[in-house]
Amino acid sequence: MQDPAALAKLLEWYVDAGADEAIGEVPVDRFAAPPSLESVRPSPAAPPVLPSPAIGGGLGGGGGPKELAESCGDLASLEAAVRGFEGCALKQTAMSTVFADGNAAAPLVIVGEAPGADEDRIGRPFVGRAGQLLDRMLAAIGIDRTSAYIMNVLYWRPPGNRKPTPGEIAACLPFVRRQIALVAPKVVLLAGGTATSALLGLEGITRLRGRWFELALDGVVTPLPVLATFHPSYLLRTPQSKKDAWRDLLSLQSKMEELR
Question: Is this structure's pTM higher than 0.85?
Answer without folding.
Answer: no
